[in-house]
Write a structure and sequence with these properties.
Low-confidence stretches of chain A: none
Number of strands of chain A: 14
Mean pLDDT of chain B: 90
Number of helices of chain A: 0
Strand content of chain A: over 45%
Order of helices and strands of chain A: EEEEEEEEEEEEEE
Radius of gyration of chain B: 17 Å
Oligomer: heterodimer
Distance between the termini of chain B: 29 Å
Largest interface: A-B, 61 and 57 residues
Strand content of chain B: over 45%
Radius of gyration of chain A: 15 Å
Shape of chain B: globular
Helix content of chain A: under 10%
Distance between the termini of chain A: 11 Å
Number of strands of chain B: 14
Largest sheet of chain B: 8 strands, antiparallel
């Protein structure tokens, strides 16, 4: 029987990767993924993506709320092949910049609801226009989530870290 | 079962005792109120993790508020405000002095949104501190593939009493919480 809040797995990439995948977790109510993220995209920013259960169909959507330092804005994506994350660091961010991204997979294992995912992210590069953001994502499936894939925008930079926690309700 | 990774290594670690599950409720029928009572005083903070919906027959992703009252206080001793995005724009409002509840977040309605529930992570800080008014923070959202609402809420209860009970409703009982909604209360030790 897992503890209430358990570190399931953690990794820090030793080389650039196209994606990172977590699978075979069980016995929890929610999952919480903590990332320190940098992409190989040649920009100050990046948009990594979430995909679950290897589903690459147009079964995802999201709504973003974000601030740029001068404006508060919102946009959305519909019938997409993944959930877009706002916003990771890109590879022309300053040295040692990795963006914090926190992802809540709510009630991931139930078989009655479509899966709602809450995300906080912000790119901490010292440039104007980088953002702080909150996102709600939807995977239109009542299947239990059995695998989580974080896909790089161009690729995931070495040094990026990922820790998956399981949270078990009474 | 320990998860596997396609890259890197993993080192499972169990965090014992600092974050504990207090109680969980999953509705098997529509209900006006979910109550957490006799909340122990052994924690520093509380967290509610919820997946919920109102039975109100609308497709709106903002069909109701998840209202939360402390210690059965229904008087005008609360205030709240919010920042939210709906895909077409970002908005800020609330700033409601003398409200009659904490505002735990927006709530999706039950028409044209089959199997889509609202999600919230709600933090109640220093809930037992008798030297502070009580502050609640909510991160909540729902997306329905063409409509959506993602929001940050902050609320205050102007009381220095330790919180021993929380009552959760849809618009203070105007609507019901839908069957299948689930609310989990956790305690975090300081």
């Amino acid at each position: 029987m897992p503890a209430t809040y358990e570190n399931i797995a953690t990794t820090t990439l030793g080389s650039n990767q196209s994606s990172v995948t977590f699978n075979s977790f069980s016995g929890y109510t929610d999952l919480f993924l903590v990332c320190a993220y940098r992409d190989t995209r040649a920009a100050e920013y990046s948009y990594p993506k979430i995909r679950v259960n290897s589903d690459s169909g147009s079964n995802y959507s999201w709504t973003h709320l974000y601030g740029t330092g001068s404006s508060a804005l919102s946009n959305r994506g519909t019938s997409s092949t993944s959930i877009q994350i706002y916003e990771g660091a890109g590879d022309t961010s300053g040295s040692n910049i990795f963006a914090p991204i926190l992802i809540n997979f709510m009630n991931y294992s139930n078989s009655t609801t479509n899966k709602t995912i809450l995300i906080r992210g912000n790119n901490t590069s010292n440039v104007a226009g980088n953002i702080v953001a909150a996102t709600v994502g939807l995977w239109r499936s009542t299947s239990a989530i059995t695998s989580i894939e974080i896909l790089g925008d161009s690729g995931i930079k070495a040094g990026s870290s990922f820790t998956l926690y399981g949270i078990k309700a009474a | 079962m320990i998860g596997n990774l396609s890259a890197g290594i993993f080192a499972p670690t169990t965090i014992l005792g600092d974050y504990e599950s207090i109680a969980t409720t999953t509705l098997t029928s529509d209900q006006a109120t979910v109550s957490f009572t006799s909340i122990p005083s052994t924690y520093q903070h509380l967290q509610i993790r919820a997946l919920y919906k109102t039975s109100r027959a609308t497709s709106s992703v903002g069909a109701a508020y998840l209202t939360i009252r402390a210690n059965t206080d229904t008087a005008s001793n609360y205030s709240f405000h919010r920042l939210y995005g709906e895909g077409t724009g970002a908005f800020a409002d609330g700033a409601t002095p003398n409200a009659t509840y904490f505002n735990g977040g927006n709530m999706i309605g039950n028409s044209s949104t089959t199997n889509i529930f609202h999600a919230a992570v709600i933090d109640l800080l220093d809930y037992k501190d008798t030297n502070k008014f009580k502050t609640m923070r909510s991160f909540n959202g729902a997306d329905a593939n063409g409509s959506g609402n993602i929001a940050l809420f902050s609320s205050n209860w102007r009381s220095t009493s330790a919180i021993t009970r929380l009552d959760l409703q849809a618009d203070a009982g105007t609507y019901n919480l839908l069957s299948g909604s689930t609310f989990a209360l956790y305690g975090i030790k300081g």
